[in-house]
Amino acid sequence: MTTFVLVHGAWGGAHGFRKVRPLIRAAGHDVYTPSLTGIGERVHLTSPQVNLSTHVADVANSVLYEDLSDIVLLGYSYGGMVVTGTLAHIADRVSHLVYLDAFVPADGQSLDDLAGVRRPGGVIGVNPDWLTVPMARNVEQREDADWWAARRTPHPIACFTEPVRLPQPLEEYGFTRTYVKATGEPRPAGAGAFWVAGDHAKESPEWRYREIDTDHMIPINRPKEMVDLLLELT
Questions:
Q1: Strands 3-7 and 30-32, how do they pair?
Q2: Alpha-carbon separation of residue 3 from 23, 69, 95, 139, 142 (angstroms)
């Protein structure tokens, strides 16, 4: 039996994996989907003090208090920042690290750094000024789109501006690494952080690389393909 720990993305919550969890359990494995403070079902705890370190602690403590070991740790989208930060605390409990169309930061990089975002003169498009509004995303099925949109919550901006702390490069850890790229949407005119990370993984002997032919919303649009891929990797 394999234990999976799946970390959701920005403006979302553990509910984003609701189609994925039963498929993993039906295959005879265990799965945990910790919710991050201040968003999703924990939106009532939001504040300007919630940052990347808060979310790193959310996930690391979930693993430590449940006493999980030999885990497959997956970060989806913004969750890639979070799982990277957890390695300072739980790297010895990880057997395989998966980035699902996610940010892959080096030590000292923030999400804003990877996304090429600069915020001079205040923050644009937020209300209040310490929250970011949800980014528009495509969901294939109308009923899924309506359900998901009703549960999208603003995200504390400090999560995007705080740099990650990573004791050593990812390739120096003993676990294996996989990047899963959503290929159903076009490559942006700029570099595009997810495409850059995917290209690096595709070319590196230290990584495995896989693709799923849908847009960024993989856990909602392609839950079975996602689970089949995870089971194949492990």
A1: parallel
A2: 13, 8, 10, 28, 32
Give the closest residue to 164 by CA, choosing from 117, 102, 103. 103
Amino acid identity of residue 209, one-letter, is: Y
DSSP state letter for 164 = P
The per-residue pLDDT for range 17-75, each reduced to its tens digit, is: 999 999 999 999 999 999 999 999 999 999 999 999 999 999 999 999 999 999 999 99
Instruction: Say how far apart CA 234 and CA 224 lie, in whole Å.
Output: 15
pTM of this prediction? Answer: 0.95
For the segment 184-212, the average pLDDT, to the nearest whole number, is: 92
CB 37 within 8 A of CB 13: no
CB 3 within 8 A of CB 72: yes
Q: What CA dihedral angle connects 69, 70, 75 and 76, to 10 degrees?
A: -110
- Cα separation values, 227 from 27, 162, 174, Å: 9, 31, 24
Is the CA virtual torsion 164, 165, 171, 174 positive or negative?
Answer: negative
- C-alpha distances out from residue 199 to 24, 88, 159, Å: 28, 25, 25
Q: Where are the beta strands (DSSP E) in 69-129?
A: 71-76, 94-100
